[in-house]
């Protein structure tokens, strides 16, 4: 299912409906809002973000590694990561995004894209060496993001790595939007993420920060790295 009852307001959370509509309307814009003016700029943003997310952690990639991308969209970053791994599977709640990714990256023989339900990973236990996610969890209600943390632990092999980005809370960050909202950002504290991930059984490996300046708010993007012991 892709529809859950959200929060106390009784509104239905329907990520599949919302992201299918965004994929049809303007996939590139909703994947990377600042880079929808051209295909060249969109591709450049994917190459840049792939480089930044894995900077200093190149050992979690490699020709023998099975890589999974949670929230792959149309493969913005996967275009540049697939050549660096053995296999890559992109998962997205939107069937429209998955369809576009398959067409756009058909030339990558080791990459495949599958539609998920928005809450779990349609992959077998212990099948991935590295799982990553970028500008995805920030759009999810916290219980949904926590569910994906549990799913990442299940799908990773022993010794596997989980990397993801999350906007870091500061005193100027807005309150969370309603839980039925599948686009506005949620901001997390590092201590909160570490506590929750370690409670699940992950081993904390560290964080990196990347400053972001916007007309509305300046904040840090956290890169979180944990490992399945």
Can you walk through the features of this model?
Helices cover 31% and strands 30% of the residues. The protein has 229 residues and is of the alpha/beta class. It has a 7-stranded mixed beta sheet with strand order 5-4-3-6-7-9-8. Helix 5 links the parallel strand 6 and strand 7. The protein is globular, with a radius of gyration of 16 Å. About 3% of the residues have low confidence.
Helical amount among residues, as a percent range? 25-40%
Question: Spans with pLDDT under 50 lasting ≥5 residues?
Answer: 5-10
Major sheet summary line: 7 strands, mixed
- The number of distinct helices, counting runs of at least 4 residues, comes to 6
DSSP strand count: 9
Mean pLDDT figure: 91
Biggest sheet, spatial arrangement of strands: 5-4-3-6-7-9-8
Instruction: Give the SSE order as H and E letters.
Output: EEHHEHEHEEHEHEE
Radius of gyration: 16 Å
> What structural class is derived from the secondary structure elements?
alpha/beta
Shape: globular
Distance between the termini: 31 Å
Strand content: 25-35%
Question: In a nutshell, what does this entry contain?
Answer:
Helices cover 31% and strands 30% of the residues.
Pick out its properties.
31% helix; two-stranded antiparallel ribbon; 9 strands; alpha/beta; 30% strand; 229 residues
């Amino acid at each position: 299912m892709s529809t859950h009852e959200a929060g106390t307001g009784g509104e239905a959370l329907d990520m599949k409906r919302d992201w299918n509509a965004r994929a049809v309307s303007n996939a590139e814009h909703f994947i990377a809002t600042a880079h929808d003016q051209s295909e060249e700029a969109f591709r450049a943003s994917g190459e840049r973000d792939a480089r930044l997310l894995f900077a200093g952690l190149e050992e979690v990639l490699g020709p023998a590694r099975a890589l999974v991308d949670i929230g792959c969209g149309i493969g913005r970053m996967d275009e540049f990561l697939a050549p660096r791994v053995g296999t890559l599977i992109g998962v997205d709640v939107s069937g429209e995004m998955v369809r576009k990714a398959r067409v756009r990256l058909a030339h990558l023989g080791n990459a495949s894209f599958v539609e998920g339900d928005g809450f779990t990973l349609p992959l077998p236990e212990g099948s991935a060496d590295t799982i990553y996610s970028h500008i995805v969890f920030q759009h999810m209600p916290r219980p949904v993001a926590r569910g994906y943390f549990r799913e990442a632990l299940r799908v990773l092999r022993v010794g596997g790595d989980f990397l993801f980005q999350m906007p870091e809370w500061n005193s100027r960050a807005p309150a969370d939007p309603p839980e039925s909202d599948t686009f506005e950002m949620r901001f997390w504290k590092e201590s909160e993420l570490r506590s929750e991930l370690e409670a699940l059984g992950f081993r904390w490996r560290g964080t990196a920060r990347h400053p972001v300046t916007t007309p509305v708010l300046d904040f840090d993007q956290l890169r979180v790295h944990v490992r399945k012991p």
